[in-house]
């Protein structure tokens, strides 16, 4: 199915939902990559598609940069990297959750010209050339809030909830970093979804499956890494509703965290560096701008080599005023990447092994991710799985974000989409470690959530303890070189009191239970710790049971339904009572000894920082606007004053007025020249106002002269219409009186209008006379605004009388005289009915 018709189908789903639901919140999905950000918005009435940036591009470069004071995003930011190599920040995904001293940070410094520094959380911050430091989370948050704004412009409303894709191998540290950035951006994490899983959701959206599972590998070659996810698709039936749905199970994944498009760029850049050094005998590696230019060039040459056997690289003035020129062949490039060949294929084998399946079980290997287009990568995968298994049936760039959006839609339950249920799994073993109670020097390790545990899993651990103790959740194997092992420590508090309490009440061998949870977004935590002990039957619970159990028989059958309800309540309270008595909740205090998420205060501080920056940018923009407006106004005034005697401006102004204005104008021009750059928005507007006050009366005269004929015409029109009406109406009233029939108007009505008309005439004639004697450069004697208002008043008076309904003529002419007398000259409907009642 082509992506176009696919999109049409999806639009249909969302619109369908809109019929049933009103006032829905929008859901934003973001595929945050090392090179590109793709986003999508789910909102009823808005066609479901990838979000376009302000240049109508379907993807946004993952870069944030500063050009002096101006902050830029996307390609604007990436394009200035060679001019401001220290102020352009890309490939931030490598730094998410990474400890400052980890290998991945060293790798980052080999591909980036940005300066890094260590945060007080021992993670990475990036440093602008002016010394301003931003944590990785803050920079990612800036990009997310940029995307949020794009989405809000499209949605026409606030967008608060987001689904973000993450690589399946992301550890808790990296997931924390993602979630922190989301929060700093002012968004709420609806879910994190593994990117391979998101592609699977997108794949399932337009396909149907049988009850026999079908296995596929989602092979995702991105910029920073390559991963393979084994998934099964099958049709299933909801046991309760009997509705059928699609079940997606993630069975395993394999990955190489350092093999991807960026590594290819790096190899290519090194070819260019070697070529430069051998030709020019200068070390370009010491030149930040030169390195930034070569980095960009490497990406360009890589793209050319995807379709050609050689490419010409040319960079003007790359460094030391040297214009660089070199020919790179595909063979040369592929030789430099030879060692990567097996690394591109390996994740597939690892994923299959992890899923305990073999290639024979797999229907297809679905290629996705930007680097899956590179011939070298495709060749590696083909060699590993056979050409006939390769499937190019999803959009390599967009399937992850579209899948994430659909997943978000299904979570928010506000959209009616195809029912797809997803079970994802944990990629790293997680163990619980705690000191033995009898020999507190011995640490016990329990594999509480082994690799492959399902997202959403809960494991309850039972301990025999009398004293408070703590459980540490940690990775038994290093998730990444230089990353901590310990995730968190959960201190369980209040045990002696709780155990004492339970024992006192007759509990035998009370224990401590703590539940370890793996959330749907792949976070582990400790929840619901409690002291638990079964209390013997002769205890209070036993006695209570005797009191209530079987008591239903003795309840008099007064009102059956109400009694039934009461019994139910008793059942409930009895159960609650029994439960309360055998288990006592305990307090859990979570401590991060290694690297936890940012604390609430730090996140708030970051959010305030970003907001302050946003506000600063807005106020800078307003100042800029005020400055430009004033400047434009000064030019306009100067032209008006210079334009000679025949212009309306000159005709409508007096010499002294022009002199004053001219003086003030010169002053303001001088002021703008001297202080314009430092003046604030308010001062700039005030300067403009100061001149406007002098200009306004002149402009007003001109406008009044222009508007006068029309206003006079309008006044005369109502003057004339009213006179015409009065003449006719008086004739008709007279005729009615002669005929003995009721009239629409009394003579008082008509006299009232006559008076209003005469007043209007007097005022108008007087005004027109005075206006005739007024010079063009004097203020008008009569304002057109007042002319219109008075004409309107007269018109309304007239219309009131014109619209009055004609009185009903009685059907029985004999009594008509009497009836019309009683219902007066202005019969209403009720008056009429009363007349009939009397008959
Ligand atoms: C995978 O293939 C093997 C060999 O053909 C077969 O024995 C096994 O049942 C298959 N596994 C599944 C889950 O289909
Ligand atoms: C301990 O038991 C008493 C009753 O025996 C009860 O009132 C109290 O709330 C209990 N304390 C806790 C912490 O449950
Ligand atoms: C006044 O209005 C009438 C009709 O609206 C129009 O024919 C006439 O030209 C107008 N006269 C002036 C002076 O605007
Ligand atoms: C208004 O109408 C009266 C009579 O119709 C006329 O005498 C008078 O000049 C008119 N006034 C103006 C300002 O046209
Ligand atoms: C006066 O009466 C005539 C004839 O019935 C009618 O056409 C005309 O509209 C009436 N005029 C007014 C102002 O009501």
From TrEMBL:
GO MF annotation terms: ATP binding; ATP-dependent protein folding chaperone
GO cellular component term of the entry, any: endoplasmic reticulum chaperone complex
Signal sequence extent: 1-25
Pfam families in UniProt: HSP70
Keywords: ATP-binding, Chaperone, Endoplasmic reticulum, Nucleotide-binding, Signal
Basic and acidic residues composition bias: residue spans: 769-798, 830-839
Compositionally biased intervals (Low complexity): 816-826
GO biological process: endoplasmic reticulum unfolded protein response
Keyword Transcription regulation in annotation: no
Annotated spans, Disordered: 768-839
Record's compositionally biased regions (Basic residues): 800-813
Domain of life: Eukaryota
PANTHER family assigned to the protein according to its UniProt record, in alphabetical order: HSC70CB, ISOFORM G-RELATED, HYPOXIA UP-REGULATED PROTEIN 1
Name of the protein: Actin-like ATPase domain-containing protein
Organism whose genome encodes this protein: Rhizopogon vesiculosus
